[in-house]
């Protein structure tokens, strides 16, 4: 079953939440890869999240700010979510300790993962069928000749331009810079393999 399990650790500042993962173990609050720094003027730790796109802001804030308020209350952190018309800003988490920032980030990460399926698709991967252009045009001509005058609404204008024909094999939701970079990396990684599969001599044949 899909569910999220937390282990609660009491601290002097707040209750720090760690998510339990059966494969990876407990979330490491001292993760060196976490880009968290200390503001020497305020003494607070600051964790910027520039890779969180504006499409996710409403999920972090929640209805009437309830989701953000719950995270702040549970972890002791403060979460700054910019307005949509301010592209220069990004989500920032602040806390008295590094652990507090990490706990809040973990909660935000869970929200991002759950809300991703609620967003529209942004990209797709397809196979062009441009080498089938002649076959498509012949098919359209046959249908037009056979149905013209006998089938209402059937004319060449209802068919896709043969030059734009493609076969969609994958739909993607890429709303963050990390997602885009990861997708580009994977596409580059499989480029030679794809080029080998779709050699120039290969052709797509349409029947029907």
Automatic annotation (TrEMBL):
InterPro entries: AKAP7-like_phosphoesterase, ASCC1, KH_dom, KH_dom_type_1, KH_dom_type_1_sf. GO terms for molecular function: RNA binding. Keywords: RNA-binding. It comes from the Eukaryota. PROSITE patterns: KH_TYPE_1. Transmembrane segments: none annotated. One of its GO terms (cellular component) is nucleus. One of its GO terms (biological process) is DNA alkylation repair. Residues 41-113 form the K Homology domain. PANTHER family: ACTIVATING SIGNAL COINTEGRATOR 1 COMPLEX SUBUNIT 1. This is K Homology domain-containing protein.
């Amino acid at each position: 079953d899909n569910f999220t399990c937390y282990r609660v650790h009491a601290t002097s500042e707040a209750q720090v939440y760690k998510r339990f993962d059966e494969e990876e173990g407990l979330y490491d609050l001292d993760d060196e890869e976490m880009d968290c720094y200390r503001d020497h003027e305020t003494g607070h730790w600051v964790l910027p999240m520039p890779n969180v796109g504006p499409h996710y802001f409403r999920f972090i804030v929640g209805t009437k700010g309830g989701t953000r308020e719950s995270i702040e209350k549970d972890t002791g952190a403060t979460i700054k979510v910019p307005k949509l018309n301010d592209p220069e800003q990004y989500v920032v988490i602040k806390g008295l300790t590094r652990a507090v920032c990490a706990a809040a980030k973990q909660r935000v990460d869970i929200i991002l993962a759950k809300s991703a399926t609620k967003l529209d698709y942004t990209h797709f991967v397809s196979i062009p069928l441009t080498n089938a252009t002649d076959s498509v045009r012949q098919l359209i001509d046959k249908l037009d000749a056979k149905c013209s005058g006998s089938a209402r609404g059937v004319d060449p204008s209802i068919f896709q331009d043969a030059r734009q024909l493609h076969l969609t094999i994958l739909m993607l939701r890429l709303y963050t810079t990390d997602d885009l970079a990861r997708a580009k990396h994977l596409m580059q990684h499989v480029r030679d393999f794809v080029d080998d599969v779709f050699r120039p001599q290969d052709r797509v044949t349409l029947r029907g």
